[in-house]
Amino acid sequence: MDSSKYSKINHIMNLGIEILRMILCFWVITLHYSGKKNKNKYKILRAYFHVPTFMMISFYFSYKTFISNDIIKYKARLERLLIPYIIWPIIFLAISTSSFNFIKIKKLIFDLSLQYITGFKINISLWFIGILIFFGIFFKIIHFLFNFQSLLILQIISIIAYLIQYKEINYRIFFLYPYYLKSFSHIAEMMPIAVTGLTLKNIDIIKKLENKRIKCISYSMIAIFLIYNYEVFGQFKGFSYSGVKYNIVGICLFISFSLIPFDKIKDKIILSFIKMITRYTGGIYYLQETISYILYKFNYFKIRRFYMCFMIYILGYLICTIFSKLFRNNKLKYLFY
């Protein structure tokens, strides 16, 4: 296949991933804000497949950054993560804190320090960005030390991470810790998933499967159905993302949405519309806690939890649309992407 033609098709295929990102982003919001009653009623809200899939997608598309010796490109990626990780907790504190005194300021500084260390004290959703930053640095060090063998080393580390999970070592280490320190338990849980993202890109999985779309999507859906409805891989003590099932479901979701034949759609308006509505999932993810705090001030949204989830997403999209344009020539735009 002509390389330029493949590049064009691959770009269109990425629309499937953009749709998946949008679904995952809203899924995360419903997990956080749909309420205990709805989570007990709808099993899908308690299926923690969204964040692992996000992790896999992130490192799939970051593969070239980690194998490249282009430090400028790597620093730019790190910057895109550090800016929201540092600034959003400060914004949230500024909005949520009504008054200041010496004792309160001291506590705020302490909480902010814990937030930056754990990603889980003020803006709990930012633990994910903290893990991305940590893995980004760690993977780059491994590549620097082992070069062409770096992916193999990371795969070995991933196997060890699974052993730590299945032997319940990870659970025993973090079980008695405060909730904000439990965020460190996600390192062992997310390591294999991040490395899977790098591995899938290394073997160029989507290009290899593009001629077997229907079969791959069908098998992926069957695998997701079985894992969702049955304890195919058994049970053990762990945290939210323990076990190989999250990796497998992430792979299946990634492959399925990547192979949706958007290249068959010739209408540019439809393709542009899909691209437009799937923007800003990162910014919406960052904003969810700040927006929910404001909405919780209104009793209307307290009793209509799913309405609130939609409002969080829509308001987040609108805010990101406005401020990403306002800061388009400024690095603060990374707060909204």
Describe this structure in words.
It is a single chain. By secondary structure, this protein is mainly alpha-helical. It has one domain (3-335). The chain is built from 17 helices and no strands. The chain has helices spanning 3-33, 36-41, 50-60, 63-67, 71-96, 102-118, 127-146, 150-166, 169-174, 186-202, 205-209, 213-229, 245-258, 268-277, 281-295, 299-303, 305-326. α1 (3-33) packs parallel to α14. It is globular, with a radius of gyration of 20 Å. Residues 1-10 have low confidence and may be disordered.
Task: Supply database-style keywords.
337 residues, mainly alpha, 0% strand
Helix content: over 70%
Cα shape: globular
Total individual domains: 1
Q: What structural category do the secondary elements indicate?
A: mainly alpha
Count, helices: 17
Give, in order, the helices and strands.
HHHHHHHHHHHHHHHHH
Mean pLDDT: 91
Euclidean distance between termini CA atoms: 33 Å
The radius of gyration computed from the alpha-carbon positions, rounded to a whole number of angstroms, is 20 Å
Summarize the biggest pleated sheet.
none
Number of strands: 0
Low-confidence stretches: 1-10
Q: Hey, roughly how much beta strand do the residues contain?
A: under 5%
